[in-house]
Design brief:
The chain is α+β, with helices and mostly antiparallel strands and about 170 residues long. The protein contains one helix and 13 strands, in the order H-E-E-E-E-E-E-E-E-E-E-E-E-E. The protein is about 15% helix and about 45% strand. The chain has a six-stranded mixed β-sheet with strand order 8-6-5-11-12-13, with no helix packed on it. The model has no long low-confidence stretch (mean pLDDT about 85). Keywords: Membrane, Transmembrane, Transmembrane helix.
Protein backbone atom coordinates (compact mmCIF):
# COMPACT_ATOMS: atom_id res chain seq x y z
CA UNK A 1 0.00 0.00 0.00
CA UNK A 2 2.78 2.45 0.93
CA UNK A 3 4.61 1.66 -2.30
CA UNK A 4 1.58 2.53 -4.43
CA UNK A 5 1.09 5.83 -2.53
CA UNK A 6 4.77 6.73 -3.11
CA UNK A 7 4.34 5.84 -6.78
CA UNK A 8 1.24 8.04 -7.10
CA UNK A 9 3.00 10.95 -5.35
CA UNK A 10 6.04 10.61 -7.60
CA UNK A 11 3.79 10.39 -10.66
CA UNK A 12 1.82 13.52 -9.64
CA UNK A 13 5.03 15.46 -8.91
CA UNK A 14 6.46 14.45 -12.28
CA UNK A 15 3.26 15.52 -14.01
CA UNK A 16 3.29 18.91 -12.27
CA UNK A 17 6.94 19.47 -13.20
CA UNK A 18 6.22 18.50 -16.81
CA UNK A 19 3.27 20.93 -16.99
CA UNK A 20 5.35 23.77 -15.52
CA UNK A 21 8.22 23.04 -17.93
CA UNK A 22 5.79 23.04 -20.87
CA UNK A 23 4.35 26.44 -19.93
CA UNK A 24 7.83 27.91 -19.48
CA UNK A 25 8.89 26.54 -22.86
CA UNK A 26 5.64 27.59 -24.58
CA UNK A 27 5.74 31.12 -23.22
CA UNK A 28 9.39 31.69 -24.22
CA UNK A 29 9.14 33.89 -27.30
CA UNK A 30 12.73 35.06 -27.34
CA UNK A 31 14.17 38.39 -26.29
CA UNK A 32 14.35 41.80 -27.86
CA UNK A 33 17.56 42.36 -29.81
CA UNK A 34 19.01 45.46 -31.41
CA UNK A 35 21.40 45.46 -34.37
CA UNK A 36 23.40 48.15 -36.10
CA UNK A 37 23.70 48.00 -39.90
CA UNK A 38 26.78 50.11 -40.52
CA UNK A 39 26.49 50.10 -44.34
CA UNK A 40 23.11 51.84 -44.04
CA UNK A 41 23.74 53.70 -40.76
CA UNK A 42 20.55 52.12 -39.40
CA UNK A 43 19.45 50.40 -36.21
CA UNK A 44 17.09 47.46 -36.35
CA UNK A 45 15.36 46.12 -33.25
CA UNK A 46 13.29 42.96 -32.99
CA UNK A 47 10.34 42.59 -30.63
CA UNK A 48 9.29 38.90 -30.66
CA UNK A 49 5.97 37.32 -29.74
CA UNK A 50 4.86 33.71 -30.06
CA UNK A 51 3.75 33.80 -33.71
CA UNK A 52 5.29 36.97 -35.09
CA UNK A 53 8.15 39.44 -34.71
CA UNK A 54 8.04 43.20 -35.00
CA UNK A 55 11.13 44.52 -36.78
CA UNK A 56 11.60 48.23 -36.08
CA UNK A 57 13.89 50.63 -37.98
CA UNK A 58 15.57 53.82 -36.78
CA UNK A 59 18.65 55.95 -37.24
CA UNK A 60 19.00 56.00 -33.42
CA UNK A 61 19.18 53.39 -30.67
CA UNK A 62 15.65 52.23 -29.76
CA UNK A 63 14.09 51.51 -26.40
CA UNK A 64 10.67 50.06 -25.67
CA UNK A 65 8.24 49.47 -28.51
CA UNK A 66 5.85 52.30 -29.39
CA UNK A 67 3.68 53.31 -32.34
CA UNK A 68 6.06 56.16 -33.07
CA UNK A 69 8.53 53.62 -34.52
CA UNK A 70 8.73 52.54 -38.15
CA UNK A 71 8.20 48.78 -38.25
CA UNK A 72 6.99 45.71 -40.04
CA UNK A 73 5.36 42.78 -38.32
CA UNK A 74 6.29 39.42 -39.84
CA UNK A 75 5.28 35.84 -39.22
CA UNK A 76 7.99 33.57 -37.87
CA UNK A 77 8.64 29.91 -38.53
CA UNK A 78 10.21 27.55 -41.04
CA UNK A 79 7.51 28.27 -43.63
CA UNK A 80 8.33 31.98 -43.85
CA UNK A 81 11.23 33.91 -45.31
CA UNK A 82 11.92 37.41 -44.12
CA UNK A 83 14.38 39.89 -45.53
CA UNK A 84 14.85 43.51 -46.39
CA UNK A 85 16.91 45.25 -49.04
CA UNK A 86 18.52 48.57 -48.24
CA UNK A 87 20.08 51.05 -50.63
CA UNK A 88 22.70 53.19 -48.83
CA UNK A 89 21.92 55.98 -51.32
CA UNK A 90 18.21 55.94 -50.39
CA UNK A 91 18.38 55.56 -46.63
CA UNK A 92 14.68 56.19 -46.04
CA UNK A 93 13.44 53.39 -48.33
CA UNK A 94 13.09 49.80 -47.12
CA UNK A 95 12.36 47.03 -49.62
CA UNK A 96 10.57 43.97 -48.19
CA UNK A 97 11.77 40.55 -49.37
CA UNK A 98 9.98 37.27 -48.63
CA UNK A 99 6.55 35.90 -47.84
CA UNK A 100 6.14 36.70 -44.15
CA UNK A 101 4.79 40.27 -44.06
CA UNK A 102 1.80 40.57 -41.74
CA UNK A 103 1.62 44.32 -41.08
CA UNK A 104 3.55 47.51 -41.79
CA UNK A 105 3.67 50.86 -40.02
CA UNK A 106 5.66 53.69 -41.57
CA UNK A 107 6.31 57.10 -40.00
CA UNK A 108 9.70 58.32 -41.22
CA UNK A 109 10.78 55.52 -43.56
CA UNK A 110 8.80 54.25 -46.51
CA UNK A 111 8.46 50.92 -48.21
CA UNK A 112 9.90 50.42 -51.66
CA UNK A 113 7.60 49.98 -54.67
CA UNK A 114 6.46 46.47 -53.81
CA UNK A 115 7.28 43.33 -51.92
CA UNK A 116 9.98 41.63 -53.94
CA UNK A 117 11.26 38.11 -54.52
CA UNK A 118 14.85 36.89 -54.68
CA UNK A 119 14.66 36.61 -58.48
CA UNK A 120 13.39 40.15 -59.12
CA UNK A 121 15.72 41.47 -61.83
CA UNK A 122 15.41 45.07 -60.61
CA UNK A 123 17.44 44.11 -57.52
CA UNK A 124 19.16 40.88 -58.55
CA UNK A 125 21.02 39.87 -61.70
CA UNK A 126 20.82 36.35 -63.02
CA UNK A 127 24.08 34.40 -63.02
CA UNK A 128 25.12 31.81 -65.60
CA UNK A 129 24.49 28.97 -63.14
CA UNK A 130 20.84 30.07 -62.73
CA UNK A 131 21.33 31.72 -59.33
CA UNK A 132 20.87 35.38 -58.58
CA UNK A 133 23.41 37.98 -57.44
CA UNK A 134 22.41 41.09 -55.52
CA UNK A 135 22.95 44.22 -57.62
CA UNK A 136 25.09 47.11 -56.42
CA UNK A 137 24.54 49.09 -54.12
CA UNK A 138 21.89 47.03 -52.30
CA UNK A 139 22.43 45.35 -48.94
CA UNK A 140 20.30 42.35 -48.02
CA UNK A 141 19.38 41.76 -44.38
CA UNK A 142 17.94 38.30 -43.82
CA UNK A 143 16.08 37.21 -40.66
CA UNK A 144 15.88 33.62 -39.47
CA UNK A 145 13.02 33.65 -36.97
CA UNK A 146 11.97 30.25 -35.63
CA UNK A 147 10.54 29.65 -32.16
CA UNK A 148 12.54 31.69 -29.67
CA UNK A 149 15.70 31.70 -31.79
CA UNK A 150 16.70 34.58 -33.99
CA UNK A 151 19.53 35.11 -36.42
CA UNK A 152 20.14 38.24 -38.49
CA UNK A 153 22.42 38.00 -41.52
CA UNK A 154 23.84 40.54 -43.94
CA UNK A 155 24.97 40.23 -47.53
CA UNK A 156 26.02 42.66 -50.25
CA UNK A 157 27.27 42.15 -53.80
CA UNK A 158 30.83 41.49 -52.59
CA UNK A 159 29.81 38.69 -50.20
CA UNK A 160 29.49 35.13 -51.42
CA UNK A 161 28.01 34.08 -48.09
CA UNK A 162 25.83 35.78 -45.50
CA UNK A 163 27.57 37.34 -42.49
CA UNK A 164 25.87 37.07 -39.12
CA UNK A 165 25.17 40.37 -37.39
CA UNK A 166 25.50 40.23 -33.62
CA UNK A 167 23.13 42.17 -31.33
CA UNK A 168 24.52 45.34 -29.79
CA UNK A 169 22.51 45.10 -26.54
Amino acid sequence: MKTSIKFIIILLCSLIIAIIAFFIWYSDTGKENQYYIKEANMYIKTYPSREAVIIAFSDNVMGDFSDSLDYVKVYKGNDYGTGILLDPNEKMVIHILGNSLKERHWQKYKQGDKEISSNDTVYFEKKEDGGYLLKYPYIEISFELVGSSEKVLSKNRDNIYYTEIKPID
